[in-house]
Each structure stands twice: as structure tokens, then as C-alpha cells.
Amino acid sequence: MTVTFPQKSLPWLLLLPQLLITAIFFLWPAEQALEQAFYQEDAFGLSREFVGLENFLDLFTDPLYYQSILTTLVFSFSVAIVGMSLALLLAVMADRVIRGKLAYQTLLIWPYAVAPALAGVLWWILFDPSMGPIALWLKSAGVDWNHYLDGNQAMILVVIASTWKQISYNFLFFLAGLQAVPRSLIEAAAIDGASPFKRFWTIVFPLLSPTTFFLLVVNLVYAFFETFGVIDATTKGGPGQSTTTLVYKVFDDGFVGLDLGGSAAQSVVLMAIVGLMTVIQFRFIERKVQYS
Amino acid sequence: MIENRPWLTFASHATLFTGIALVALPVWLALVASTHPASAFGVGHIPLWFGDAGAETWGTVLFEKAGNGVDTPVWFMMLNSLIMALGITFGKIAISLLSAYAIVFFRFPFRNLCFWVIFMTLMLPVEVRIVPTYEVVANLDLLNSYTGLTLPLIASATATFLFRQCFLSIPGELVEAARMDGAGPWRFFFDILLPLSRTNIAALFVILFIYGWNQYLWPLLITTDDAYYTLVMSIKRMLSVTDGDIAWNQIMATTLLAMLPPVAVVIGMQKLFVKGLVDSEK
């Protein structure tokens, strides 16, 4: 693309709406978070004093913050790994069948459209200790299910609800990846006598690795930032702090705890993390473009 | 099919059926639960088969009030959700089309800088900068308004990148030919560029509509007036009733109604949806 229009001021006019909104609702708040992170505000928001790096020092000496980091990692990797494994299994099966592929796809992808908060509520009720069918069934099997009291069970619940929503996405990308594996390779292996399982692990799975890596990053980003609704509508970060992820903590400390400085410092840390993940994502995508 | 293995084929179908059943399980039970009277839930179990109070519950929730502390009927909140979702969708598509057009078809100073500023929005999801963004919107007096619900969410790097990619694939000869025929930038935009990117716009529309409809945290924070409640966030308000008083049948009916429009869009426009999903990750 080298042919362009000669106008000099028109492009600015065209860019104006996007730049304005970006400046007002993205850059200005980000700048304020950055500034706020160096101040300590009193409880009424009347005065504030410059405290330098104290908010950050508080943050990094706070055991609760480390606990939240650990919670986030456990949560994100569980969502990514469980979701991707199940989706891969389903995608491999769907790739095998000849009849009804599209029907299967339709019936598997719709949860993508369900809002995280609603996904949380649906599973929350299934597992409700006093009336949820799954919880009652677990009880009769000898598991004492109560996510109101048991932090691990609460974590399992939010992982299930978040994974449920994300399987559709993983499924679609795995299926596309599987369909791009050259048929001739698999046929050659079959002629050499390799069983379907052996063919999968030695040929198909390695060839899927770009897709797998891409999905891993996307799933981690999803679990980090888009599962707020799941947690807020169900466990609200509890019991205790057992499902308080980093993003939930920013909200909780800022709006519920009214610790604006601390919340802002956490925002700054999170922005750095998102920045890093975005760069990783883009690096990878550049590579993918070069290969193709 | 490489070789014929009837058992493996059978196992594939069986696995897929199990997967579909598991995925549908919560929705099935919610549907069943919404057909029972509220009193059916205190007795230690959720009913497993349809009851006969379905029409009544759904009617109440849709046309009278959603219940559990939310006095607005679902149809009204659906309208709010629709306004928000369409506002976000059209807003994002419009400003992204314009800025991608500027970046691809014009040369001007600081072009790369503008591109990077737009790129930055990718790194700042609203959940991360939630407190200061709320303050900015409060300062601008946009709480409890449709503008406040939509405007802060319509800057989108993804859509701009997508259109940029799409515009870059348009051959330069086309621009030359248009210019030779005397078409100005606006005419080129409306008569050539828009028709050419029709499919991309449609695919993006599907994805963005789902995104807009499913907004949760933002409407929850900035709407306190129930005239602006959206359907998805109202669930949270409904759940904050004291435990014993929750009418689960109404919550289930509202939840199902809240997920119906985006799910219908995904199923009805599956091809565009898949295209949009794949495109927006490039």
C-alpha cells in the first residue's frame, strides 16, 4: 500500500474521536493511577500526602498480596490447563467424525456468549450445599461439599464456571488447527502401521504446538482479566481470601476497602503485567506470520 | 477417514455427546428450576423435572418485575442492555473504521505515534484501572447515563488493527483508479472501502455485540438508578438479597433471559461469529 490521499488535516479529523476517547478514558485514568500510587489519601478523600514508594513497599511486604498472587496463578493455570485439555479431546473427536461436525460445533460453542457473571451463577446453584443437585450427589458420595466454608472448594467452583465458558473458544481454535494438519503425513504414518494414538502424539500434537501456545496465552489473559464477573457474582473473593485474584483485589481494596493508594499501586503492577503479556502475545503472532 | 475403526468412531461420538451434555447441564437445570414455584427450593433439593409454574414465573419476570429487590421488569433491562450493546458495537466500529482509514490511506506527521497510542489501550483493560476511570466518569457527570455506559468502552485497539489489516490488503491500483476518476477521500471511503469491508464489519459486529451485552463490572459501578440497570448486572443486585429470601425461580428465569440474545446471535450467525473470533486474534 503506497497510494495515499494528499490531505493533511483530514486524517487528524478522522483520528480525533478515537484519540479523544483513548485520552479521556484510558490515558488519563492510567496517569491518575500512576500518580495516586505515590500518595496516601485519608478516609474521607479530603487530603492526601506524598508518600513516595510506601504504597509499593506496603504491597510487597503484605502477605495477603503474595497470597493473592498465588491464588491468581493457581486459578489461571487451572482454567487454562483444564479448559485446553477438555477442548483438545473434544476437538480431536470432532475432527474424526464425518457426520454431524457442524452440529457438534454449534452445540459446543454457544457458552462463549454467556456472560461470566451468569456462568458463575449457573454453576453456583448446581453446587449450592443445601439444594444444588451436584452438591447433594457429592454428599451422598461422601464428599462434604460447602464452598461457603472451604476455600479449595470455592476455588474449584470458580475454575469450573470459568472453564465452562472458555471451552468453546479453545475448541474452535484446536479444531481449526487440527484441520490444518496435512492429511498426507497422517496417511503415511498409518501405512507404516502407527495406531491412531501414536499418530496423535508423534505427529498431530507437535504440529499443534503453535496453536497450543497461542491458546495458553489467551487463556491466561482471559483468566486474569475477564473472570471478574464469575468471582464477583459468586464467591466475592472468599471465603477468607481464597478466591481473591489480583484483579478482584484491585476492585475490592479500592471500592470496598477504600484504600485508594494501595489499589492504585496494584493497578500499576497489573498494568505492567498486562503490558508484558501483550508483548509476548504480539511477539508470538509476528512469528506465526513469518512462518506462514 | 484414514482407516475404518468402528469402535473408535463410536467412542468419538460418545465423547462428543458427553461433552455436549455436560456443557448443557447447568442451563438445563436452570430451565427446570425456573418452572417451579419459589417454595420448591427450600426443601433440600433443586427439582429435576419441569414443574407447572413456568409460565407464571417467566411472565412475572419479563413484564412485571425481576424480583429479589429489583423492581424493574426484564424487558426494560433488556432494552437498556440492547442500547448499551448496540452503542458500544456501533461506536467501536465507527471510530475504528475512521482511524484505520486515517492510518492506512494518509501520510501525516506523528502517524506512528497515533498508532502506538491506540495500541496502548490493549494494555489497559477497564478492570485494571477501575478506580481512576470511575473517578473520571464521575467528574464528567456521566454516572447513570447511556453515555457513561457506552462511551468509556468504545475505544478499541483490536477493531482498529483488524480494519487496518483489511485495508492494507486492498490493492493500491484501486485507490489510484478512484482518484483518477475524481473521487475524493470521503467518496472513496463510502463507495469503495465500506462495501469492500462488509464481511469484516459483520463478523466484528457479532463479537462486539456479545462483548457489549455481557458488560458487568462497568454498569454495576456507574448505575445506581434502576432506570439504567442492564440485565447482566441486575443479577448481582438480585443475588444480594438475604439468603433465605431469594426466589431462585425468578433468578434462574432472569439469568436465562439475560443469556438468550447473545447465545441466539452466536448460533444464528455461527459463520460470522467464527470468522470474527479468528480475525480479532490476528
UniProtKB/TrEMBL annotation, chain B:
Residue span, ABC transmembrane type-1 domain: 78-269
Presence of the UniProt keyword Ribonucleoprotein in the record: no
UniProt membrane topology term: Multi-pass membrane protein
Keyword Phosphoprotein: no
UniProt keyword terms in alphabetical order: Cell inner membrane, Cell membrane, Membrane, Transmembrane, Transmembrane helix, Transport
Pfam families for this protein: BPD_transp_1 (PF00528)
Tree of life domain: Bacteria
Transmembrane annotation, as ranges: 82-106, 113-134, 146-167, 188-211, 246-267
Main location: membrane
Localization per Swiss-Prot or TrEMBL: Cell inner membrane; Cell membrane
Described purpose of this protein according to its UniProt entry: Part of the ABC transporter complex UgpBAEC involved in sn-glycerol-3-phosphate (G3P) import. Probably responsible for the translocation of the substrate across the membrane.
Database matches in PANTHER family: ABC TRANSPORTER PERMEASE PROTEIN MG189-RELATED-RELATED (PTHR43744), SN-GLYCEROL-3-PHOSPHATE TRANSPORT SYSTEM PERMEASE PROTEIN UGPE (PTHR43744:SF8)
Quaternary structure (record): The complex is composed of two ATP-binding proteins (UgpC), two transmembrane proteins (UgpA and UgpE) and a solute-binding protein (UgpB).
Annotated family: Belongs to the binding-protein-dependent transport system permease family.
Protein known as: sn-glycerol-3-phosphate transport system permease protein UgpE
